[in-house]
Design goal:
Two copies of one chain form a homodimer. Chain A is 67% helix and 3% strand. By secondary structure, chain A is mainly α. Chain A has a three-stranded antiparallel β-sheet with strand order 1-3-2. Chain A is globular. The first copy, chain A, binds a DNA duplex (30 and 30 nucleotides) through α3.
Chain lengths: 221, 221
DNA sequence: ATAGCTGAATTGTGATCACAAATCCCATGC
DNA sequence: GCATGGGATTTGTGATCACAATTCAGCTAT
């Protein structure tokens, strides 16, 4: 209807996001951070309305997200967040257990002190989210802790694949969190940080692997 | 791989494919099998015309495929097949080297003789494609050889991730093939089959890993 | 010859519409 | 009480359109 907003004025120039991109990013974040429970239904018109666009960008975003496994399309085209079977959860966990130690190991060679400091800050925020019993913030900081490390691996394809896995687990992680009311921060984060400081590859791989599998082991429905 | 439409009727019943699905599958196959060279440009209207649909389903397919890394969107929205850097190729190869031994190992426990026979048949077709110097058929049978094995692993998420990697490599594999005119079938396929017959997990992992890295090592531009 | 410029054609984007299928709701009947 | 049937509503699909941005061809000026 009205798309006349070309404002090159502001110096803090953010790239002119297309409508599709805004919707995609918004939905993706909601899903990955566990803001939507498993099985939550969405409609194209509803998505469009909530982002202030027509259904065309909404449809494209949904296609894209369902290609990444972040959304499920029923045979009739209905859109929901995925409800994962136990087998699927275990499989996704073992993929994480395969990829994350590899990414961590690659990052280790390039890690510096500033990186570890940054991870500590994020880990503190994570601990605070646990105390506040804030599931979304907990998931967000937890993933950011890992992503900050893996970004250092300079392996964008592998990180992209991993984020796909995180996406698929988003709604389930939320369900997990509310099921077992977590009271302590992830215990292995400290081990990860120590292995990084020590430059110990084997210890880092082990710490990452157990951090990943530990968290998802309790998911048995 | 995606919608499992339960059709209890005729076994040869093809599900009523939506226009979007037909376009998606068609394009995906062209890309994965190396029918398009790297950097090949596509247009939404052109895709629509060649599949007999409007640009709407074409656009959705392109979005989906670019989410999977099978297509690249320029900043202005132009669509091309990806031209991978050497670093990217190496990274994708190492992902294959990580995932494929794992899938093979999982399949090994469930493998039976009929499976190995089927793989031999595919491998023969692969050798014939080499003799005929048919790049598309070579790539197709090569991937089918691997997929036939991995299907047995009963790990759909992991296989899905791997197919994403294959997709990204499709156009590049075609360029590779035409660059070094292959004259012999992949030598490690025999080792894979023997390890399967022997039930030797370590040998299978090694054979798969070398088959994967060997094939892509020559890709240095 | 080559670099630069201008107008035409091409191309992606997002909105809207018609339509059919799926879903929901509620009254009816057992 | 519970299943059932039918009509209204919701919902996804695909086509089409207007529009802006990009791209390209051909011409001019140096």
């Amino acid at each position: 209807m009205q798309k006349s907003v070309l404002r090159p004025s502001v110096p803090s120039e953010t790239a002119p996001l297309s409508a599709h991109d805004r919707v995609y990013r918004g939905l993706r974040q909601q899903i990955m951070h566990g803001e939507l429970p498993p099985g939550h239904a969405l409609t194209l018109r509803g998505i469009g309305k909530s982002f202030g666009v027509s259904m065309t960008p909404a449809r494209e975003s949904v296609r894209r997200l369902s290609a990444e496994g972040a959304l499920t399309l029923s045979a009739s085209g209905r859109v929901t967040t995925p409800e994962l079977s136990n087998e699927r959860i275990e499989e996704l966990a073992s993929i994480r257990a395969l990829l994350e130690p590899e990414l961590g190991s690659r990052a280790l060679r390039r890690a510096h002190l500033a990186l570890i400091d940054r991870m500590e800050v994020i880990n503190d925020a994570n601990a605070r989210a646990v105390n506040r019993r804030d599931p979304v913030e907990y998931i967000r900081t937890n993933l950011e802790f890992h992503r900050t490390l893996y970004l250092r691996a300079q392996s964008p394809a592998m990180l992209g694949l991993l984020e796909t896995v995180w996406l698929q687990l988003g709604p389930t992680m939320r369900a997990l969190y509310t099921r077992l009311q977590r009271t302590t921060a992830p215990p292995h984060h400290r081990m990860i940080l120590e292995a990084l400081r020590a430059g110990d590859d084997a210890a880092l791989r082990l710490a990452l692997r157990t951090d990943v599998t530990q968290g998802l082991r309790h998911l048995q429905a």
